[in-house]
Specification:
Elements lengths: L2 E5 L2 E3 L5 E8 L8 E6 L6 E6 L6 E3 L7 E6 L4 E6 L8 E11 L2 E4 L6 E5 L2
Length: 121
């Protein structure tokens, strides 16, 4: 199965931007829908965004829609999350994972180590 390494997190001011990257290995990446999830301290991991295997469709949580953009480059085996207009409530560890949809919700597996995003003045 796919192995994942997230990067690009850091400390950013409210209203700022970050671009997260998820580098994948394995031959199944190009046939997997991919998603970004995040987990804040004391909270459950939540869905952020997903993109279908061919990049044809994207999906977003209501809390990030209009601010975040997910994209993928199958040739580079990489999925990206462009985060704009960041808010303190976006602070979390962000994970990417092969993802699937069921019952109107997205779920992931094969988690990487995650990358910390901190939005603070």
């Amino acid at each position: 199965q796919v192995q994942l390494v997230e990067s690009g997190g850091g400390l950013v001011q409210p209203g700022g931007s970050l671009r997260l990257s998820c580098a994948a290995s394995g031959r199944t990446f190009s046939r997997s829908d991919m998603g970004w999830f995040r987990q804040a301290p004391g909270k459950e991991r939540e869905f952020v965004a997903a993109v279908t295997w061919n990049g044809g469709n994207t999906y977003y949580a209501a809390s990030v829609k209009g601010r975040f953009t997910i994209a993928r480059d199958n040739a580079k085996k990489t999925v990206y999350l462009q985060m704009n207009s960041l808010k303190p409530e976006d602070t979390a560890v962000y994970y990417c994972a092969p993802s699937f949809r069921g019952g109107g919700s997205w779920f992931g597996n094969s988690w990487g180590q995650g990358t910390q995003v901190t939005v603070s003045s």
